[in-house]
Structures are given as structure tokens and as C-alpha cells.
Amino acid sequence: MTEENKNYLDYNGLKIDPLIFTMGFVPKCDMDICGGQCCNWGVYMDKDFKPVILEHEKDIIETMDNNQIKDSELWFEKEYEPDTDFPSGLAIGTELYTMENGEETCVFKNKIGFCTLQMTAVKKGMHKWAIKPKYCIMYPITIIDGVLTCDDEHSKRLDYCGIHHPENFVHSVFEAMTEEIKYIIGDDGYNFLLEHFEKNYKNKS
Ligand code: SF4
């Protein structure tokens, strides 16, 4: 653990790692550049989010492209993983499939890199993230052992926004993720972090 990581902020009991203010990031997530590479390992979600997704099974299938798996029995891993970072204490992973280009990816990613869960929600007039797993919305931010931090392990695998590509960075993860942070911890939580960022980090790097 670095010295910096010991100085967690606290927002309503959620610890925040100041790494979100210092780790660099690209201007924004851009599917045209990366093709949604961060989805290629699938994602874990709370076991209770699986039925939320399955409620829209028919619409998701209609949104999928020809090569995606239409059998919802094959969308999720069979075993739950104990994980205290999820409200129920159990996580379930999405399965992978092989795209036409030979690349393995999350069953919900289509051939042009878009998430069919998000596409389905938009098509149905819901909030774009209503049926998208929380950890997909948040990436590159994550929550590990109750600490809101950056997923630097996953980041190591990525060819555009990953930590091995600082040449593509223009600002911090915090500055890139305004909408996502507001969605996860609300406007008040975001404003709390913004105040801390402006006081301690802005224009100081
Ligand atoms: S659920 Fe959607 S955003 Fe999440 S990994 Fe799968 S395709 Fe990507």
C-alpha cells in the first residue's frame, strides 16, 4: 500500500482512494477507438441484479446482433462467488462468447463494441444505465473491500485507456468520470469530491 492510499477520504461510510484524483485517463470512453475492450473479460454483478436483467430478456435478444447468444441460460456463470463488495454478499459473472473476429468478449457486447443492455434500456425509454451492471458503469473506478478506487489491475490489460498508455492521458480519472460518479454516489457525493480535488489536486500536477 502506498502512502497516498492510506489517506482515504470518507463519504457517508464509503472510503475513497485519492488515486482517483491522480491516476490519468483518456478524454472519455470512446468505443470508436477502443471497441469496448474493457468488456472482453465480462463483469461481476450482485446476484440480485441478474433477475433485473432477465426481466428484459425478450428486448435484449431483439437488440442483439446475429452472432450474439440468444439463449439466456448461457448469459451468466452457474456459480455464485462470495464477495462482500456486493449488497447480497454474492456475485455472479457474465459469460463470454467468441465474436466473428475471433475475440472473446462479454455475452452482452455486440460486434461494434456496444453493450446491448444499455442499448435495450435506451430503446425502451429507460435511463441508459438502468439494466447495466454497476461495475460496468463505474469502470475505471471500482469498489474493492469497501474502498472506491481505480481498477488498476484491469487497466493493465487495455490498449488505449490503460495505465501503460500515459501518452493518451489528458486528465485524471476523477475529471473523466463526472457523470458516472454522480450516478454512483449522487450529486452531493460528487460535490464533496470536487471540493477536495479543487483544493488539493487541480493545476498541481
Ligand atoms: S454488461 Fe455490457 S458494459 Fe458490462 S461487460 Fe458486458 S457488454 Fe460490457
Number of helices: 9
What is the global morphology? Answer: globular
DSSP strand count = 11
**Regions with little confidence, pLDDT below 50 for 5+ residues:** none
Following the backbone from N to C, one meets helices and strands in this order, namely EEHEHEHHEEEEHHEEHEHH
- Rounded mean pLDDT score: 94
What would the keywords be for this entry?
binds iron/sulfur cluster; 205 residues; 11 strands; alpha+beta
Structure description:
This protein folds into two domains: 1-30 and 138-205, no CATH class; 44-132, no CATH class. Strand 7 and strand 8 (104-106) form a beta hairpin. The chain is α+β, with helices and mostly antiparallel strands and 205 residues long. It contains nine helices and eleven strands. The strands form four sheets. It has a four-stranded mixed β-sheet, with no helix packed on it.
